[in-house]
Amino acid sequence: MISLAHAQSAAQATPGFEQFLPLIIIFVLFWFMLIRPQMKRAKEQKKMLTELQKGDEIITASGQVGKVAKIGEQYVSLEIADGVITHVQKQSIQTLLPKGTIKGL
């Protein structure tokens, strides 16, 4: 009886669509939950930086709150108090605040 069991050849399974379906579903979930929102956020950040103007109130990534005094190619002069100006990279600007927010702090 054992010799009969060994005599049968195993059926060769050909890879089909059903085997790749879980990988495809995982990729689609990653796309909609991770990649797409990150690309959308990056696009909004880039648009905000290009529309930045003198006098806008901002928050940097380090938490500094101030008013834009001067805008350059790579750097922004940020007035954090009367007569106190710091220079920060444009990429470190995180949030654009509504006008008058600094007076309320």
Q: Give the strand content.
A: 25-35%
Query: What is the gyration radius calculated from CA atoms?
Result: 28 Å
Number of helical elements: 2
> Any idea how many domains?
2
Question: Low-confidence segments, ≥5 residues, pLDDT <50?
Answer: none
End-to-end distance, in Å?
A: 87 Å
Strand order of the largest sheet: 4-3-2-1-5
Number of strands: 5
Architecture overview:
The chain has 105 residues and is of the alpha+beta class. It contains two helices and five strands, in the order H-H-E-E-E-E-E. The protein has a five-stranded antiparallel beta sheet. The radius of gyration is 28 Å and the shape is rod-shaped.
Could you name the key traits of this structure?
5 strands; five-stranded antiparallel β-sheet; 2 helices; 105 residues; 2 domains; SH3 type barrels; alpha+beta
Short description:
This protein has 105 residues and is of the alpha+beta class. It is 38% helix and 28% strand. The chain folds into 2 domains: 18-51; 53-105, SH3 type barrels, CATH 2.30.30.
Give the topology, please.
Layout: H1 2-7, H2 17-50, E1 57-60, E2 65-71, E3 75-81, E4 84-89, E5 93-97
Antiparallel strand pairs: 1-2, 1-5, 2-3, 3-4
